[in-house]
Design goal:
5-stranded mixed beta sheet, 12 helices, 17 strands, alpha+beta, 481 residues
């Protein structure tokens, strides 16, 4: 009867008859007696027990095959054929030696078809799906525009001279009187301590020396052999990123110290770098954001008011003889991670509403009339944002520090000079020559060092720098006091 055959096939887990018997089977199923249905259920359980026993035999046979391959009794090619049968001769050999591995209801099944998910853990003792993610993207040295780059010939100390005082002030005199003369003072960095400068206030030239900086990596031969994911392919890239980060932090240390704007000359950047011979924010440069230098408040955090104050301080800078300095060219706004959103807001604002600088005066009187000015965002014009992620790390006591900088390539006296040895303008990668070779053969590059079997790689850079003249910089530690 078709309906009975369909039920038997369903309960036994075998192929069902044609679908044309389905309606008749569904109509008669409800009319069966409990005894008739029970007999078929028992047949279903017998089929299940037989299937479980067959599965156990196949698992045991697979384990025996795996043991034979791993102990060397059987060539590994048979394991490949067991998982994906292709060669009839090899498959026939496996059928004879491991009869329970393939024969299932007269059908030929590969080893993969007879394994459950849990069997993989028992046989391979490791995960199969593995993936290695590469290292981070290249690191840009985005604070390089803040310094004047100079190529150095060797490792000897360099000196930078700034001479002032040779030309007398432009004054009127009797046409018949003898003109006065002024001696040339210096070499001296003019820190503004005396206007005009005198011999007593002159100091030594600004000096610095290039230093060698390097980072390295060492890969053992065993680790190289075991690397099946390509872990060591990006080692040169890691070294290049490390060198770029070190250069970036070195430059940050020239204008920042622990307290913010570097007024001590102490270097807090890359480990091992020497301190600068002079500081960028000396008192005589009048380049701190303070009320004494013309700001509306001292050390304002980055904002439109502080930025307008910084522009005013730059516009009022004077040389050593008291004459105004004309600072032209592009300007840069340097900020750290805590002011990232603030800087973006300032750069994308279209206009400002201000009650100062033409609105309410700084000191109110009884007859003062307050005004609100709606102006174009002029403070951000001709201004490029430079995000310095190391600023808040170096200036750890005042991480809200920020700076307004005139383009050093547009000034005769830059704020900072950064020197690199000729040929090392870009960091150079080197590898150790392998010292391990076969008897009578050539060196083996995979073995590396003779004693350690390590492959050693390093990157080198030679650089130095110092503050020159801080009158093209304005800095605030962002503390508000």
């Amino acid at each position: 009867m078709p309906s009975i055959r369909m039920l038997e096939a369903t309960l036994a887990g075998t192929d069902a008859p044609a679908a044309s018997d389905g309606l008749q089977f569904a109509a008669q199923l409800d009319s069966w007696s409990p005894d008739a249905l029970a007999s078929h259920v028992q047949g279903y359980y017998r089929a299940q027990r037989n299937a479980t026993a067959a599965h156990s035999r196949r698992v045991n046979e697979a384990a025996r095959l795996w043991a034979d391959v791993t102990t060397g009794k059987l060539d590994p090619v048979f394991l490949r054929e067991a998982r994906c049968p292709q060669n009839p001769v090899l498959v026939e050999h496996l059928r004879q030696v491991y009869p329970n591995l393939y024969k299932v209801n007269g059908r030929l099944l590969g080893l993969r078809e007879t394994m459950a998910v849990t069997d993989y853990q028992a046989l391979y003792a490791d995960v199969i799906d593995r993936l290695y993610y590469g290292y981070f993207q290249a690191w840009p040295i985005n604070n390089m525009p803040l310094v004047k780059k100079h190529s150095l010939r060797d490792f000897r100390q360099v000196k930078r001279y700034m001479n002032d005082g040779l030309v007398t002030p432009f004054t009127g005199s009797d046409p018949g009187a003898q003109p006065t003369q002024s001696a040339l003072l210096g070499p001296a960095p003019q820190n503004g301590s005396a206007v005009p400068p005198t011999a007593a206030t002159s100091t030594a030239a600004v000096t610095y020396s290039p230093w060698l900086f390097q980072a390295s990596a060492s890969i053992n031969w065993a680790a190289f052999v075991n690397d099946d994911l390509g872990l060591f392919k990006d080692v040169p890239r890691r070294l290049a990123i490390k060198a770029s980060r070190g250069t970036h932090k070195f430059i940050t240390g020239l204008y920042c110290d622990v307290n913010g704007p570097n007024s001590s000359g102490n270097y807090v950047g890359v480990t091992g770098a020497p301190a600068a011979s002079t500081a960028l924010f000396l008192a005589g440069f009048y380049n701190r954001l303070t009320v004494a230098n013309g700001a509306t408040a001292t050390n304002l955090r980055l904002g439109i008011q502080g930025l307008m104050d910084a522009h005013s301080i730059l516009a009022g800078q004077q040389d050593a003889t008291g004459d105004p300095i004309m600072l032209g060219g592009p300007m840069y706004l340097v900020y750290g991670k805590y002011d990232y959103a603030v800087a973006k807001q300032l750069a994308n604002s279209l206009e400002n509403i201000s009650s100062t600088y033409g609105g309410t005066p700084g000191t109110s009187t009884s007859n003062t009339i307050g005004q609100l000015l709606r102006v174009r965002n002029w403070a951000m014009e001709n201004l490029t944002l430079i995000y310095d992620p190391y600023l808040s790390i170096v200036a750890s006591s005042n991480p809200y520090s920020w700076f307004l900088v005139a383009d050093p390539d547009s000034q005769e006296r830059p704020g900072i000079e950064f020197g690199q040895l000729a040929g090392f303008e870009e960091a150079q990668l080197y590898s150790e020559v392998p010292t391990t070779q076969h008897m009578g053969g050539a060196p083996d590059p995979t073995m590396g060092n003779f004693w350690s079997n390590n492959q050693n790689i390093k990157i080198m850079a030679v650089m130095g720098g110092s503050a020159i003249d801080g009158r093209s910089w304005v800095g605030s530690n962002g503390s508000g006091s």
